[in-house]
Amino acid sequence: MKKSLYEVGNWSPTDCILSLGCGAAWWEIKQTMAQEAGELLLLDTNKDVLNWPDLDEAIAYFEEQYGKKATTPASIFHADAGQIPLSDETADQIWLLNSLHELDNLEAVLAEIDRVLKTDGCVIVEEILSGGVHEGCGKRLFTRSEIVGLFASHDLHVVYEGSKDEEADYIKFGR
Ligand SMILES: C[S@@+](CC[C@H](N)C(=O)[O-])C[C@H]1O[C@@H](n2cnc3c(N)ncnc32)[C@H](O)[C@@H]1O
């Protein structure tokens, strides 16, 4: 059965959400416009895709679409997901939406997720779990068991998994 990101994450209006490898963050802005969060922290290495002019444009677009003002404060971090410039136990939810397969330094990334995630927090991964090659970026995609094993090595275990759409799946991890 398909579920929306909100049905999987069920974040509260006070939750701090950190999205790693968020790209232009249109999806994150749309999600938090539909369901307010306490804070949205957007992290990507690429300043050409993640920047304030484009983010302001996305916010304005969704404000018009939803007919209301954006209330979730957003921040931008141009940083490597393996060196997150945030304090320990900052995030209630960490999202890796179609980005995990692009991250080179997975051990460092997992150690940082473990550090920055609150004890009762969750991680949501969206990926195509084919084990093949991603058409867009040419990087190798994971299989489900590779991702589950990766997170298990940091004591993060599957609490939900299911389809996002015809292609991609969500896997939600908790401690
Ligand atoms: C396939 S894109 C996904 C973007 C967005 N989440 C989406 O679903 O459209 C992967 C993103 O990961 C970013 N990225 C790659 N390596 C990274 C790293 N080490 N740390 C942070 N971001 C990284 C890229 O710049 C790119 O924007």
From TrEMBL:
Any Pfam family matching the protein: Methyltransf_11
Domain Methyltransferase type: 57-124
Keyword Transferase: yes
Any GO BP: methylation
The keyword Ubl conjugation is assigned to this record: no
Keywords for this protein: Methyltransferase, Transferase
GO molecular function per UniProt: methyltransferase activity
Domain of life: Bacteria
InterPro entries (alphabetical): Methyltransf_11, SAM-dependent_MTases_sf
Listed name of the protein: Methyltransferase domain-containing protein
